[in-house]
Amino acid sequence: MKIAAALERIAQALRVALWEQGKQAGLSPIQVQMLVFLASRPAGVRAGDLAREFHLTPATVSETLDALERKKLLYREDDPSDRRAVMVKATRAGRHAGNTSRDWNRVIRQAVASARGDKVAHMLFLMRLIAELQKAGLVTVARMCSSCRYFDGRRPRPGTAGYCRLLEQPLRERDLRVDCPEHQPLRVDS
Ligand code: SF4
Fold first, then answer.
1. Are 143 and 178 in contact (CB under 8 A)?
2. Which of 18, 115, 139, 183 has the fewest other C-beta atoms within 10 Å?
3. Dist CA 126 CA 171 (whole Å)
4. What's the pLDDT tens digit per position in 84-115?
5. 11: three-class secondary structure by DSSP
6. Which domains does the chain have, with CATH numbers?
7. How much is the average pLDDT of 41-64?
8. Looking at ligand 1, which atom is closest to the CA of residue 147?
9. Can you tell me which atom of ligand 1 is nearest the CA of 143?
10. Which residue's CA lies nearest to atom 6 of ligand 1?
11. HSE-up of 51 (CA within 13 Å, CB side)?
């Protein structure tokens, strides 16, 4: 229970940091998060993927996108690969706002960097926690090695945690990723 209470305090600190960043930029917390996400994806993102990424309903995503579009921070266009889908892209001003806001959790990262203790063990604990929350449906997207189709959990040699078939290299525990851009979800066989 103490760990759950501690995590709640950390979640509160994250909410405050995000709120402060939004206040400075004239954006709501979810607008900040979406712009940071879009700024790093110049090819655009499907609106449906934003709903999954941020665990929001399509209606809430649509309202947020409308507000950002009115501020000329993003635009929507048809997805050439799927006529029913809509792509969302940040404008130049939106990318600037997203890149400027990318550092919204700097204070938290600094606190993590200066905290003492076995960080690899803590990271492994948090990854297992995220996996459990994903199973419970509270985390919709987690680009971690343990849920990636390229990950082979057989340890190629002592001291490693597994092997990445995409990078073609063994991964030590400290190399395991939490938000890997190359992550591909495990296939669910029918
Ligand atoms: S692609 Fe990324 S998430 Fe997947 S196993 Fe390799 S490092 Fe891990």
1. yes
2. 115
3. 18
4. 889 999 999 999 999 999 888 888 889 999 99
5. helix
6. 2-105 (1.10.10.10), 118-175 (no CATH)
7. 92
8. 3
9. 3
10. 164
11. 12
